[in-house]
Amino acid sequence: MSLKIVVLAKQVPDTRNVGPDAMTPEGTVNRSALPAIFNPEDLNALEQALRLKEQFPGTTVQVLTMGPGRAAEVIREAMYRGADGGYLLTDRAFAGADTLATSYALATAIKHFCPDVDLIIGGRQAIDGDTAQVGPQVAEKLGLNQITYTEEILSLKDGKITVTRHIDGGVETVESPIPCVLTVNGSAAPCRPRNVKLVMKYKRALAPLELAQGTTYEELPYADQYAKKAYLKIGQLTTADVNADLSQCGLAGSPTKVKNVENIVFKAKESKVLTGSDEDVNGLIQELLASHTIG
Amino acid sequence: MANYYSDIKEIKFELENSPLMQRIVELKERDFADKDQYDDAPQDFADAMDSYDQVLEVVGDIVGNIVAPNAEAVDAEGPHCEGGRVRYAEKTYENLDAMRKAGLMGVTMPRRYNGLNMPVTVYTAANEIVSAGDAGFENIWSLQDCIETLYCFGNEEQRQKYIPRVCAGETMSMDLTEPDAGSDLQSVMLKATYDEENDCWRLNGSKRFITNGDSDIHLVLARSEAGTRDGRGLSMFIYDKRDGGVDVRRIENKLGIHGSPTCELVYKNAKCELCGDRKLGLIKYVMSLMNGARLGIAAQSVGLSQAAYNEAIAYARDRKQFGKAIIEFPAVAEMISNIKARLDAGRALLYQTARYVDIYKALEDIARDRKLEPEERQELKKYSRLADAFTPLAKGMNSEYANQNGYDCIQIHGGSGFMLEYACQRIYRDARITSIYEGTTQLQTVAAIRYVTTGLYSQVIEEMLNQEVPTECEAYVARLRVMSEKFNACIALVKEAQEATEDAQAKNDIHDLCARHLYEMAGDIIMSLLLLQNAIKAPELFGKSLQVYVNLAEAEVEKHNSLIVRMTKESIDSYRQA
B102, A196: Cβ pair inside 8 Å? Predict the structure, then answer.
């Protein structure tokens, strides 16, 4: 059995290493001040896909990412780890998309380039928006089952996938027919490192939008390589390529509107003094249980 | 997100700034013969250099984010011996898994065996990077270079059987030492007998101090010629763990490199294959194996020196006493400057050695396929000699520097450095073995001294002194010329002292007592000159180190000179101990 797997990945600003200039005065993310990285949980998702590829020879793993030209870096990074290739979904009309418009764009693209997809795997959420909505919305738009908080794929046979999910206080094992959508939790296996042979093989791979304005592959250094090796040209899709309904794309397709952003300063609340008596300790435990802080 | 390669600009400089590199790549890539056959093969020189850079970036990333963060836990846990097998520390498996998945095994092997076909120089860089993260793990990982010996001396069937397995991540060991055969490998007694019935060789006996002794593929030195007692009765064998017959009796409890299991092995009629010809085990194959391993220890030492520098400078910037960071006190800053100077000088020597090794090895490899042209034969001879001369220098000097740097690193930490919670104590403990294994510094001196007396080092120094330098560096050349003259005068002095006595024992003793001093003088001057070349190209990286190192080297040369002057027949008696 060979599978067709699409991994959803996003290039995000590295919000884990935030400096003082991380936000603009308008309250939006200052993308130029933060290095762009592969969204961490999307790497967990990629690892799950690559494990299936090892398990089922002939399986293909395609990465789909939406963003500007530089977002193709995510596809290259995935190829360095074992993905077969991918598509950069890019168009001015996609700009300003909220999760609904994003999932519409992604679902439409998948229908276009991989209509017979077996599994769509993405990270649980991206570290810039933290919504965890895109994966589930893609599933809804494609009319597929979804398994969120995936920790491990236990088996895939007879058209059914068995997966453990990370849930509050434990782990849940669920089964679903394929095709379906999985979103993978950060507690799942970390992604493998880049493989140096693949790095050397794919290091020149570029999406058309990454080429300097007006240049073609024929004008690049090692042009003959692009002519000989199709995998060096990373796929690129626009709204027109995927027949997207423009009213559902980008700002036009985004019902979410940011009204305003406030800075919040955490302040210490009033403190409580407890003695070491059993009574006080019991009281605190009861209080914490009642507020579901513990238990 | 630390990257142990791209954060250290000096490594990239060493890779890219030698005129020899172009020749190395040409030879190693056989004029880019693989370019249409393998997707990962370079198209030209620039492409190859770019690939090396990107590969080392992956190494630096894995070391920065996996190997180095695991080092403390690996050091604390160490390996265990269970039922005759080695169980590594838990995190060692994580390190190995990452290196395997990254494809960083069989780095120098040809692509036709699934190797990366990288020059030794690039592998050396990877080695130093891994060592800077965890010198104990570096041992396990870098034993992959034993495959070089199997590639050179094994037959095609053995190459096809074993090399792809190493490239896929199987580990190796070289089983040489025995309880009564340490530095003196001629005394190896492990018995190899031919089993007529099964048409194979069998090993019986034991080995001691075997690094990574439970590896997948062993190269074993054993006595195949019954009744012999010297090196000519020894042959080299390949033992495949899949065949069984070798058990681990115990693991040593060591001062440092805890991650690396040092094993006592018992061979019970273990099936093995002869590698190469009988009787050439020690005199040819182990010498080749040891030369590769010595370059590896030189790289390990440089990695440790880098780690010592990193820890020292970070602590000295952070630690405040008397109202300011201790790095601002000249007494502390001097120690850090000395660490950096020895690091930069030793690294320059390491890469120069690696490049010499690369050229001669690549030519030797070409010679396996076709007859070399006369000028190629000349080139092979030249670089083979230089590699032989530089390898013991790089190993001995760098391992002593790693020790000194580890010592100074602790000193900079003060009382905290003596506590086990800082990394500096691990670096200090790990460094201690480098000047002992794969031949002590004393034995590196024995290997190098003939190049002192034949004048090879003097000749290399003279050539480097005669290179043109910018006006502002002429003062350095003048100082180095004085040092070089002292070195040559000392060589002459030792010869004279030997000639002045009829006593054969005294002749030998004078020679042996002066050898270490002459050896270090050669090292001090050659490293100064290499650092000068670096500083001319990149003053921002090496300018300070050049100044500091030449000051140190000048004082060292003076010291050795003064000692040699006193090593007369009359005084050597005081150096004899009953």
Answer: yes
